[in-house]
Amino acid sequence: MCTLEKTGNIFYLTLTGDGEHRLNPTLIANLRSSLSQVKSQAVKGSVLITKAEGRFFSNGFDLKYAQAGGSPQAARDRLLNMVDLFKPLVADFMCLPIPTIAAVTGHAAAAGLLLAMSHDYVTMRSDKSVMYMSELDIGMTLPDYFTAMIRSKVGSGGGRRNLVLKAAKIRAEEAVMMGLVDSAHPTTEETVDAALTIAEALGKKRWDGKAYAEIRKSLVPELCALLGLKDVAVMPSRL
């Protein structure tokens, strides 16, 4: 499902196995538990890198789990439950008191793309990975907090249109131009190394974690309102 490791001040959250890393209640709970550990162990200079094994970063919500509910209504209920369960995970990322980086070395689709977008920085493998908001293709509207995230992270109206009204499969170079991704790299190793380079540079800053989280939240006010997150003033300990 996922593992959490720490090397120096850098946490590595890894989606494990060669599957699609579909976001079902179990994986969402495991991710939230890992972030809780990160939050409790973080110190000044800590940074989180999230990565995944195999061909996928995450292929979104677990539709097979939803369909296993039996009836169409039960399947819809399971899907809506995953939408509700995923929302506090996004909130956890917004409140995490350290910089976060997603190393997207495989496809990131729908909720899997939103998982990547919940990070402060994103590096992406350029030869095989795509970013894809698939809701239009499967006939599903976007949850309100998905839309708020997209509006906050994709500055161009044309880019937002291509992502959600064209359901385009965005490759790394285009994702960089759209602002979805900070840099594109030809291999998995180079993608993770680029994330590590960012993490090491940010870790040297040794910023106050509470101030970092609050400033992050201030950049996405619409999203934070939908997530139920309130602003908290942070003042320097020494004036």
What does this structure look like?
The protein has 239 residues and is α/β, with parallel strands linked by helices. It has a single domain (2-227), classed as Alpha-Beta Complex (2-enoyl-CoA Hydratase, Chain A, domain 1). Helix content is 49%, strand content 18%. The chain contains 11 helices and 10 strands. It has helices at residues 25-41, 63-67, 72-95, 111-117, 135-138, 144-153, 157-165, 172-178, 188-203, 209-219, 221-227, and strands at 2-7, 10-15, 47-52, 56-58, 100-104, 107-109, 121-125, 130-132, 169-171, 183-185. The strands form 2 sheets. Strands 1-2-3-5-7-10 form a 6-stranded mixed β-sheet, sandwiched between helices. A 4-stranded mixed β-sheet has the order 4-6-8-9. Helix 1 links the parallel strand 2 (10-15) and strand 3. Helix 1 (25-41) runs parallel beside helix 3 and helix 6 (144-153) runs antiparallel to helix 11 (221-227). The longest helix is centred in the middle third of the chain and has 24 residues, at 72-95. The radius of gyration is 17 Å and the shape is globular. The chain starts with a strand and ends in a 12-residue tail after the last helix. Keywords: Isomerase, Lipid metabolism. Pathway: Lipid metabolism; fatty acid beta-oxidation. It catalyses: a (3Z)-enoyl-CoA = a 4-saturated (2E)-enoyl-CoA; a (3E)-enoyl-CoA = a 4-saturated (2E)-enoyl-CoA.
